[in-house]
Structure to design on (126 residues):
């Protein structure tokens, strides 16, 4: 079975390195977008099996803006994981995605077992 292509949209370099350290061997490729705008561009040009979205992305657009782009495209078949520390803000992202029939879930990046949950999610997607 082919390994998944993953898009990781997050502006935090440390989270990016942690994610790659724990998950890289389970993926065909991890593409990182450090801004919402870059995430939107990558989604328009590529297909991914899993998309990890942060909500709070510094100045400018945020994860909800990426979610709205996903909503408008309607051709995204990836599982979308909202991986934010800001859990209250992630509810609106999850609602938009679920309302349009997408496979979406929230996982707190602060959860002790975050990477174990993500590893199982990747294994289940194979």
């Amino acid at each position: 079975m082919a390994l998944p292509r993953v898009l990781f949209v997050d502006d935090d370099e440390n989270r990016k390195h942690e994610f790659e350290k724990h998950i890289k061997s389970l993926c065909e490729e991890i593409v990182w977008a450090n801004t919402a705008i870059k995430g939107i561009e990558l989604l328009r040009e590529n297909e991914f099996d899993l998309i990890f979205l942060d909500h709070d992305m510094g100045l400018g657009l945020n994860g909800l803006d990426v979610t709205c782009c996903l909503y408008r495209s309607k051709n995204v078949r990836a599982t979308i994981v909202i991986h934010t520390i800001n859990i209250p803000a992630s509810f609106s992202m999850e609602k938009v995605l679920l309302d349009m029939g997408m496979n979406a879930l929230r996982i707190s990046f602060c959860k002790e077992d975050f990477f174990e949950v993500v590893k199982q999610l990747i294994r289940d997607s194979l």
Observations:
- The helical segments are 13-23, 36-45, 63-73, 87-99, 114-125.
- The two ends are 6 Å apart (CA to CA).
